[in-house]
Amino acid sequence: MGSGVVLYSHVVDAFAAEALACLHAITFARDMGFRKVVVEGDSRMIIVKVQKGIENLI
């Protein structure tokens, strides 16, 4: 397993911060070779957009 930290100084709001965290988590999982990933969050908009993006890839 692993972990990581990314520091952004120009994130404008909580939505952008959570979207970036989700992006980095998915990218990290892909780079580690995971085939299935469970992402949990409290922003429904981000979850819906991620799910739509995944459906477009299938």
UniProtKB/TrEMBL annotation:
Residues 11-51 form the RNase H type-1 domain. GO terms for molecular function: nucleic acid binding; RNA-DNA hybrid ribonuclease activity. Gene3D superfamilies: Ribonuclease H-like superfamily/Ribonuclease H (3.30.420.10). InterPro entries: RNase_H-like_EbsB-rel, RNaseH_domain, RNaseH_sf. It comes from the Eukaryota. This is RNase H type-1 domain-containing protein. It comes from Gossypium aridum (American cotton).
